[in-house]
Design brief:
373 residues, binds pyridoxal-5'-phosphate
Length: 373
């Protein structure tokens, strides 16, 4: 830790309770902890993408409003370009929405967000860094939305924003659409943000709800589709709100090469994206069946990872896997039922096989001898 600065009294008080995001350190032969996609691009495609990313002049600023990317996204989701804002990863969209819609309601000292737990940690992190209160409503026994509890929280907290990821992380399932709809209808004067970072791996997108309700926005990202390095995301939502968000956005927020790369991906690599999602879904089902066969609990995944109930404390399994060069994400430091869970990204076939081979040592269905391995 650094010595306290003599200027510490100037720092926003909310930051005292927050920690900067640090990815798990170290290098592992098999990294299945961050929901990154397996790299399936051919060398030729990689080269074509690299060429596309290089702008005609490095001395010029990129497109100021990411027009070309916004038009492509808009066409894909049936929106107008003025209903799309491009961001440096969808986490920037999360931060911009929270920063913009931060006005406390009458009589309140700060604005409030309602979200679920467990879910993507950035909702709470961004809310707190902007001084917003957060109400977290536990998901139900099947990790689906608890409509009554959400309704209660919305009525009581009168949130400016409601954040829901579907498919959700770390739980991997998509939420029920009728429940999502009920929550949208219970929050007519909040912005309900549906995070669809994993929608490409799901049976269907909830994105169309945006066209039915004027107070819904949808987040998208290239990060889980094999292009996390580009840092490109977007929000599709009400034009009048995005007009205000655009003031909060810093100029040229998406770097030129990333913008050009994203346009190339969406315009030219449609077949590669389909190949990636089919591959991941196929491997996901293979790994899910194998883990369930060993006696682990496996939530029905519609994402590129699995939420695995180890039926007991999972710290030992996490550490055993890591010692064998397989990094997954463990929730053993959390409380209650969550603490029994590992989140395991679907990787390349050989990586998934290696995971299965190693984790079999801790199979809850296996006998005591097998467990001691
Ligand atoms: C990974 C992830 C994102 C992606 O964030 P980027 O900034 O686009 O990389 C967004 N939402 C959820 C729920 C995620 O898991």
């Amino acid at each position: 830790m650094n010595d306290p600065s003599p200027l510490a009294f100037l720092v926003r008080p909310e930051l005292a309770e927050l920690a900067a995001y640090v990815p798990h350190p170290g290098t592992y032969a098999v990294q299945l902890n961050a929901n990154e996609a397996p790299d399936l691009l051919s060398p030729d495609t990689r080269r074509a993408l690299a060429d596309a990313m290089l702008p005609p002049s490095l001395g010029r600023y990129p497109e100021s409003h990411a027009e070309s990317l916004r038009e492509l996204v808009a066409a894909r989701v049936g929106a107008g370009a003025h209903e799309v804002l491009a961001t440096a990863g969808s986490v920037e969209a999360i931060s911009l929405l929270i920063g913009t819609l931060g006005r406390p309601r009458q009589g309140a000292d700060a604005a409030t967000m309602v979200t679920t737990t467990p879910t993507f940690f950035m909702y709470k992190h961004c809310a707190r860094m902007h001084g917003m209160h957060v109400v977290e409503v536990p998901l139900d026994d099947a990790w689906d939305l608890d409509v009554e509890a959400m309704r209660h929280a919305i009525t009581r907290a009168r949130p400016n924003l409601v954040f829901i990821a579907t498919p959700n992380t770390p739980t991997s399932n998509a939420v029920s659409e009728d429940r999502l709809r009920a929550i949208i209808e219970a929050a007519p004067d909040s912005l309900v943000v549906i995070d669809e970072a994993y929608a490409a791996f799901a049976r269907q997108s909830a994105g169309r709800l945006r066209r039915e309700y004027p107070h819904v926005a949808v987040l998208g990202s290239l990060s889980k589709l094999g292009f996390a390095a580009l840092r490109v995301g977007w929000v599709v939502g009400p034009a009048a709100i995005l007009h205000e968000v655009d003031k909060f956005r810093l100029p040229y927020n998406v770097p030129g090469p990333s913008l050009r790369g994203a346009v190339f991906v969406l315009r030219e690599l449609g077949a590669e994206l389909v190949r990636l999602t089919s591959f991941v879904i196929h491997e996901r089902e293979k790994v899910a069946v194998a883990l369930a066969g060993m006696g682990f609990g496996v939530a029905p995944s519609e994402a590129n990872f699995l939420w695995v109930d180890t039926k007991g404390p999972c710290k030992e399994i996490f550490e055993g896997l890591a010692a064998d060069g397989v990094l997954v994400q463990s929730h053993h430091a959390r409380e209650g039922r969550i603490a029994r869970h590992l989140r395991i990204t679907v990787g390349m076939s050989h990586e998934n096989d290696r995971l299965l081979e190693t984790i079999a040592r801790w199979a809850p269905g296996a006998g005591e001898n097998a467990r001691r391995g």
